[in-house]
Every structure is written in structure tokens, then in C-alpha cells.
Amino acid sequence: MSPPDPGLDDILRRRKRISRKKRRKRAGISAVLAVLAVLVVLVCVGLGSAYTFSSSCNLSSLQPVAIGQNSFVYAADNSLLGSIPAERNREPVALSEVSPWVAKATVAIEDRRFWSHGGVDPQGIARAVWADVQSGRVVQGGSTITQQLVRNLYISQERTFSRKLKEVCLSIKLSHAWSKERILAAYMNQVYYGNHAYGIEAAAQTYYSRDAKDLTLGQAALLAGLPQAPSAFDPFIAPQKALARRDEVLQALLTNGDITRAQYAETVADRDLHLKPGRLYTRIREPYFFSYVRDQLIAQYGANTVRSGGLRVYTTIDPRFQNAARNAIKQTLNRPNDPAAALVSINPGNGAIRAMAAVTPGAAGNQFNLVAQARRQAGSTFKTFVLTAAVAEGMNPNTTYYTSAPFHYQPDPYTPAWNVSTYDHTYVGPISVTGATLRSDNTVYAQLTLDVGPENVAEMAAKLGVQTPLLPVPSIGLGSISVSPLDMASAYATLAAGGIYSKPMAIRKVILANGSVDTDAGWGVPQRERVIPDGVAWTVTQVLEQNIKYGTGVAAYFGRPAAGKTGTTDEHADAWFCGYLPNLEATVWVGYPKGEIPMNDVHGIAVAGGTFPAQIWHLFMQSAVGVQKPRDFPTPLEYPTFTYWHRGQYALGYYGSSATTATTTTAKTTTTAATPTVGREPAPPPTSTQAPPTPTPLQPPAPTTTTTDTTVTPPPTPAPAQP
User: Whole-number mean pLDDT of the chain?
Assistant: First the structure.
């Protein structure tokens, strides 16, 4: 007779025993790794002690990086924009002038055995290795505060074995030569806390507008957690991450016995960071552009060189254009509760950024770069990329017709329906693509996007200069993808340049600390490439010229040849105007930085691309070009060859059942998971009394045609203009 089957309890007990054995085995491996780590550290310490006999490990022979070796940034007119770091923003203070909470929090989170070890902490490294092994990733570092001070003050950040030995040796020597208080004070006076703040006094002023000696427990905990990753934990940009990091520091303080459980609970319960930005940003001219340049410098040279390498950085920004941009915004949006606005302007001839400004009414300062960092749905400004892709494939926008009517798209029963309507729910039936552009007709452009192909629209936008990754969904042509103002400015500048893309350029020249010009990095050399034929760019420009004169962009017109397109997203959450002259492009975005908040009542109207954005663009351009002689857009060397345009299966018929059936569909844009929210562009603003005329045929001029303008036909690959 076979033995009875084991019971469920026996099976569970057996599994628990196996699980415990596995855990013990993993713990044993982890313990071995930790012991090996300690042995490695001890060997390094021993080698480091031997290394002390070498002249390279001699504190007196090494010179720390001087605070005064700042890097300076200049505008295009050589006026100073600011310094990295600014001397006035690094204010060394004695340990007695710093809140005791800061010292305790710094030691707790960075080096809990700081007061007892001799500069290098084998036990701390072993603990870090143990934590890393248990987590399966790096969660703790083993460097002491003394090592970090040595690394920042005396030696480079390169990751080599000899550099590590020197760091260990110098740390031991410094620990013997300096008191713990002096080491801690030096560390807190030079460490980077983010947002241009070097040292605890600058950090206290930057984030809380108070002296370091007055910092509370919660404030000290937040600041002590920043040096590990100032950008990731930036409380201005990522408050939730900053709160989580602050709580980690508080937990470390509790574990160390520096605070009571009651103090911990009370501080953690307060979820308000109580930030009060100081005047640091008013001491740096053009902070948005300044931070953009600083990021590029760090990518090239590294943070240590940028903040203390004595660089002289000459940029493309034009202070006169900056003033024009800010004045245009403030003149248009002049009430405390108005939305924010951002403007970026580019020279199409070489990609040089001439203006990068943003204004948030009612706010003392905004550390978030609305021009380069913010990404919002572009609305109908993306229709230009659909038009460009179609013209590149041979479509004549003046003779190609679609039906303006409510549009329903559902290629199969399993795909969520996409219903598209015009902004004001009015339709005109058969209309040319040029006319639909002037009306910014969503229903026509939905059909055209499907005929061109969403993937081709995404490819064209990327060619022209949109760097943001684009998902080729059907609604892409109506601006459902979020992009930055800098992306849009770059793409429209390519059209202004006749189809030649220029990579946005912010830096003209960098002079190194030894006085030599850095020619290896390629600063100031335009990176240009023809991406579409000049005839295609010219055709699109002709349509967008008419849009400024007769279409949704009439508020931007100021008597000069100009081309542009408006854009408005659902519920008026974002409004855009992208436009250009032959020699200058500018893109304007209006919205609320905190999120996509409807702008249904600003100065008594709903904000659309043809209202405030177009007006800001108008004022900026009028001031920027001043009394310069107007220039016409140059005629192309080769005009496009138009072919028969095949309207696809989803295009509405001109007459009969297709159009009739379409008018019965729901006249409202439907948001689905597969199709993001799309832009809806309004009719021309009420200030315009002009009706769209019959569009001018896009034909080459007769050979005998002459103009009074002195524009010279450009060569196939024009030489880049000077920044």
C-alpha cells in the first residue's frame, strides 16, 4: 500500500524551510561581498598611507580651486549676463553662523560616522555595499564628507584608481590637519545646492530668503538632501521628489538620535515646502537663456569646470531683442492673474538664438525655463508640417480641394472613434487646402493628415527641427503632441531659410582659463543642412503669408512680408503663434505654467492663437526690425512640380452621400486613449473685418517680372550668416 499524500500543512512547512535556506544563502553571499568590500577599503587605506610619502599627496603642495575662478557669460553685445557661480551668491559663513539643524542633517544623510572616523570610513563603505546588494542597485555611497571635500577642492572628478588612492590619502591627511568643525564648515560652504547656489548661505537665501542661521528643522533637512542630485530634487521643479528626499533626511536624523519621534512626526506631516525664492535670479540677467547656456556648457566641460574653470562664454542673445520680447509680453498681458507667455526668436540664416524670454504675471520669478523645458500641445501650428509634407509629395494647395464637414474616423470596430469638428461648428463644403489653412479647418486637415500619413507628418516635423519624439497618431496633424517653443521656432525657421535647417545655436565663442579660444568644441560654427527643396518651403510660405493677411493670423500683420500660423488647443489651455520674416523667426506660447488650465476669460475673451500670441508676436517683430527696410521672401531656384493628388479612402466626398452622412456625426472632438486631445483653432479675431479672398495662385513669376526690392536670389547652399 502506498503511503498517504502529505497534508497541506506539511507542504507549506517544507516550502518555508526551503525559502529560509534560500534567504540564508543570499544573506551569506551578501555578507561575503560586504567583507570583501571592507578588505578592499583597508587595502586602499594601506596603499593610501604608503602613498603619503609621495609628493603628490602633500596638502601644502596642492592649491584648492579658488572661489574667485568663476565662469562668466556674455550677451551678443559683450555685456555681462552673469557668472557661474556668481561671487556674490557664494557667501562663506562660519559653522557658528549656520543653524545646528543643517550640520546634523548633513552628517546624518552624508556621513553618519563623520565625528568618529579618520577621514575614510571602511564601516560606512561596507554598510553602503550591504545596502546596495540588498536593493539590487546603488542606493548609498561610501564617500565621507572629508573625501567629498577633497574631491571638490583638490582633485578632479575622473574615475581612475590612482585618483581614488590620492583621494583616500589626502582625506586621511586632511582629517589630521583640520578639525572636524573646519572640514564640515568648508564642505557646507562650497557644495552645490542647485539653482546657482553654492554653499549653505546662498542656498538658504535662494530657497527661503533667510540666513542659514535661521533655518528650521524641515528647511535644513530639505537643503541637506539636495547635494546628492540638485536637479532631480529641485523643489521649484519637482516638489514631490524634494519632499520625499527631505523625509529621507528626517529619517536619518531620527535613526541617528538627533531628533525625537515627535519632532520627526510633526515635520513629516507638513507637506508644504514653504519656499520663498530669494533675489538670486534678479542678479542674473536673462535667467532662462542663462540656464540654457549653462546646461550646454556642462554637457561639454562638466559641472566642475563650468562653475570654477574661469571660462569666458560669448553667446548669441541680443539684449535689445530680449527687451522687445519682455515688453511685448508685459504690454499685452499686464494683469496679475494673466497667464504666462514665452517667446523665442531665431535667426534663420544660422540658427542663432536672438531672444529667449518668458514672463509670468504676478510672480516674482520662475525658475522653470518655459522656452526650452516646457512642452505643450502645439494645436494648429502643427498643420504647417502636414502642409509641408503634402507639398513635398506634389500637392498643389491652391487647386487641391477637400470637403469641410464634420469628420468621423474609425477604420475598424476595435479602434476608438475619432470625431473632428471645426472650432465654431461651421462648415463651407468644398474648399482648397489653402483656404482651409486660412480658416484653420480641423476637418480638412484631419483628412489631409490621413492622406499624407501620420508617420510622414512626424518625419517632416523632425526634419524641420522638432526634436521631441513624435508618436504618429492620426491627430498629430492637429497638434496633439506636446512640444517646446524652441522646437517650433527651430522648425519654422527652417521654412524661413528656404528649407535649410540650422541647429539652434546659443554660444558663439568660449575662451578658456588660459586665454585660448576653444576651437575643438565647434562653438559659433553653424550646423546647417538642406532638408526640403526651396520650392517646397516657398510654396508653404506663400500660404502662410496669406494667413497673416487674411486668415487666423491677421493680428500679427504689421505691414511687412511675413508668414505665420496660429494654434489653440482644447479648452483654450494653450495658445500659440509661430511666424517669420525672411531674416527672423519668433514663436510665442501663452498658457499657465502649472498645467493645462483653460483660458476662457482673460481680459474678457477666450485666449486663442490669433489673439494675445499674435499680438505679442506683432509687437516684438515691430520693435525688433525697427526701421530696417522691408524684405520680400526670395523666389526659389526651382519651383515645385505639382502632380495629381489622390484623396484617400477617408476623405469626404465633395457632394452627395459622403458629405451628407458626415454632417450627421457628432460635432465634437472626442478624446480617446489611442488619439490624444487635438487642437481646435478659432476663426479670425473679432478685430478683423477682412473676409478671406480667393487665394493667390501659387505660380512662378514671369521671366520679365521685376521688383523694387534688392533681394538677391540665394545660391543652392547659402553661406551661413554670422551669429
Answer: 80
Pick the closest to residue 447 from 654, 251, 618 (CA basis): 654
Q: Are 695 and 435 in contact (CB under 8 A)?
A: yes
Predicted confidence (pLDDT) per residue in 110-123, tens digit? 988 888 887 787 76
- pLDDT, residue 707, reads 29
Read off the C-alpha cell for 158. 575622473
Q: Which cell numbers hold the place of 510?
A: 568660449
Contact call for residues 209 and 240 (beta carbons, < 8 A): no
Question: Among candidates 461, 503, 454, 502, which has minimal Cα distance to 483?
Answer: 461
Rounded to an integer, what distance in angstroms lies between the CA atom of residue 195 and that of residue 181?
A: 26
Pairing between β-strand 429-432 and β-strand 401-404 as defined by DSSP bridges: antiparallel
Report pLDDT digits (tens) over 679-715: 335 443 333 333 333 344 444 333 333 223 322 223 3
Evaluate whether 148 touches 187 at the Cβ level (below 8 Å). yes
Structure confidence at residue 666 (pLDDT) = 29
Side-chain half-sphere CA neighbours of 350 within 13 A = 17
Q: How far is CA 693 from CA 434, 435, 522, 602, 700, in A?
A: 11, 9, 48, 31, 20
How far apart CA 427 and CA 662 sit, in angstroms, is: 11
Q: Which secondary structure element, helix H or strand E, spans residue 403, and what is its range? A: strand 401-404
Identify whether the C-beta of residue 120 lies closer than 8 Å to the C-beta of residue 144. Answer: yes
Handedness of CA 80, 82, 87, 91 (dihedral sign): positive
CA-nearest of 24, 633, 614 to 328 is 614
CB atoms < 10 A from the CB of 16, how many?
10
Q: What span, in angstroms and rounded, lies between the C-alpha atoms of 662 and 667? A: 10
Distance from C-alpha of 222 to C-alpha of 242, rounded to nearest angstrom: 7
DSSP states along 152-184: HHTS-----HHHHHHHHHHHHHHHHHS-HHHHH
Q: In sequence order, which residues have a C-beta less than 8 Å from that of residue 342 and are 6 or more positions away? A: 357, 358, 370, 371, 374, 485, 588, 589
Interhelix angle 180-190/145-153, rounded to 10 degrees, is 50
The CA distance from 231 to 242, in Å, is 10
Q: Which amino acid is at 521?
A: A
Residue 25, Cβ neighbours under 10 Å: how many? 10
Report in angstroms the alpha-carbon separations of 50 from 42, 59, 123. 12, 15, 21
Number of Cβ within 10 Å of residue 336's Cβ equals 7
- Distance, CA of 449 to CA of 478 (rounded, Å): 8
What digits encode the pLDDT tens for the residues 109-161?
998 888 888 778 776 666 655 655 555 544 445 588 888 888 766 655 555 55
More confident residue, 41 or 711: 41
Cell of 447: 483628412
Q: CB under 8 Å to 507, separation ≥6 — which residues?
A: 293, 296, 297, 313, 314, 315, 316, 523, 524
Q: What pLDDT, on a 0 to 100 scale, did the predictor assign at position 57?
A: 74
Cα(192)–Cα(51) distance, integer angstroms: 30
Of the spans 4-18, 45-59, 560-574, 672-686, which averages the highest pLDDT?
Answer: 560-574
